[in-house]
């Protein structure tokens, strides 16, 4: 087991603990008049918690064979079935995409992100159902990565590009990086406007608003962490990289984001009393 994978397990456990603790703190320390802000924080927290749980259970290792989407299940669910484990991988990536969509501050997004979400999830489910035969995938892995032949990895994924796979890959390689960057830039400018209007509200509400501005701003820049695994995945479609630490870092960055974001919120939430 690689150093990154061991760290992945530790960060995964902490991520689950932090997000559950955050839900409890928000429920107990958010005043009634600021309930909507608490709901927004809890919504993002639920996406991160689901992504953390799924990522921890599946613990996927990227296998970068060009023109394929192959993963090795390193988590506890590989004792059941690598085919079944792939659904947790789908849940991990779907939650990541859904959090990005729901967090975009652009007003017109409200009118299309819900139907797009159904399409987003539907394509992922289709991709999960039409997995390739594990034996075919294993033969490809043994051909390109002979160093993995003795590891008895639980292989899942696709040995070629079908239409649903192309759609999903296109979403992650081209769409989501720009969306995450947009969140970081646009959300900061919108919250800066809110910050300039603080003189019009009471001292108590001003403190609440200032904490919310700081929290969501840092979250926006944390979203840029997700660009790292998307870039690694994009490179893997054309370049067979044999560095195990590099391969395991792909999903580690997703877990790291889920662990860091609630820490920032927990730091500011006690002042919501």
UniProtKB/TrEMBL annotation:
<dbReference type="GO" id="GO:0016020">
    <property type="term" value="C:membrane"/>
</dbReference>
<dbReference type="InterPro" id="IPR050920">
    <property type="entry name" value="Nematode_rcpt-like_delta"/>
</dbReference>
<keyword id="KW-0472">Membrane</keyword>
<feature type="transmembrane region" description="Helical">
    <location>
        <begin position="39"/>
        <end position="58"/>
    </location>
</feature>
<protein>
    <recommendedName>
        <fullName>G protein-coupled receptor</fullName>
    </recommendedName>
</protein>
<feature type="transmembrane region" description="Helical">
    <location>
        <begin position="70"/>
        <end position="90"/>
    </location>
</feature>
<feature type="transmembrane region" description="Helical">
    <location>
        <begin position="251"/>
        <end position="269"/>
    </location>
</feature>
<keyword id="KW-1133">Transmembrane helix</keyword>
<comment type="similarity">
    <text>Belongs to the nematode receptor-like protein srd family.</text>
</comment>
<dbReference type="Pfam" id="PF10317">
    <property type="entry name" value="7TM_GPCR_Srd"/>
</dbReference>
<feature type="transmembrane region" description="Helical">
    <location>
        <begin position="161"/>
        <end position="181"/>
    </location>
</feature>
<feature type="transmembrane region" description="Helical">
    <location>
        <begin position="111"/>
        <end position="130"/>
    </location>
</feature>
<keyword id="KW-0812">Transmembrane</keyword>
<dbReference type="InterPro" id="IPR019421">
    <property type="entry name" value="7TM_GPCR_serpentine_rcpt_Srd"/>
</dbReference>
<feature type="transmembrane region" description="Helical">
    <location>
        <begin position="212"/>
        <end position="239"/>
    </location>
</feature>
<feature type="transmembrane region" description="Helical">
    <location>
        <begin position="6"/>
        <end position="27"/>
    </location>
</feature>
